[in-house]
Amino acid sequence: MAHANQTVARSAPTSKQQWGGRIISAVPILFLTFDAAVHIAKIPPVVEAFGQLGYPISLAFGIGVLALICTAVYAIPRTAFLGAVLLTGYLGGAIATQVRIGAGAFPVIFPVLVAGLLWTGLFLRDRRLRQYLLVRG
């Protein structure tokens, strides 16, 4: 039992780790909020991109709202894990879309980087995730 308690104590984030996690988490939150807003607004670059990707522009609003909701779920500490899972699926769809059209490396890698920031930030700021990943049986 003492071993389990020591592992739990080690998994608790320090103040620096928690602030680092918040800062790292802010990057994808800001990006995804901006991305959702431009989808909802259907600005000309979004209309053009949807045409290139083969999606009807009528889907832009729904995709934007979905991204905004998932980002909000991620931003709330109590539901951040669920938000990270939902956003990972959302970003996976972006990756699949870019692969489907034969986009270059950057459009495929960028969503992977955003997902990496999501999970790194969450790992640093969420004790429960740290506990789950650091506990060894």
Supply database-style keywords.
about 140 residues, mainly alpha, elongated, single chain
Domain count = 1
Round the mean pLDDT to the nearest integer and report it: 90
Specify the overall morphology.
elongated
Span of the ends, CA to CA = 12 Å
Using the CA coordinates, give the radius of gyration: 18 Å
Please provide the ordered H/E string of secondary-structure elements: HHHHHHH
- Count of helical segments? 7
Description:
This protein has 137 residues and is mainly α. The chain has one domain. The chain has seven helices and no strands. It has helices at residues 2-11, 15-41, 44-53, 60-75, 80-100, 105-125, 127-134. The longest helix has 27 residues, at 15-41. It is elongated, with a radius of gyration of 18 Å.
What's a concise summary of this model?
This protein is mainly α. It has helices spanning 2-11, 15-41, 44-53, 60-75, 80-100, 105-125, 127-134. The longest helix has 27 residues, at 15-41.
Give me the secondary-structure topology:
Elements: H1 2-11, H2 15-41, H3 44-53, H4 60-75, H5 80-100, H6 105-125, H7 127-134
Helix pairs in contact: 1-7, 2-4, 2-6, 4-5, 5-6
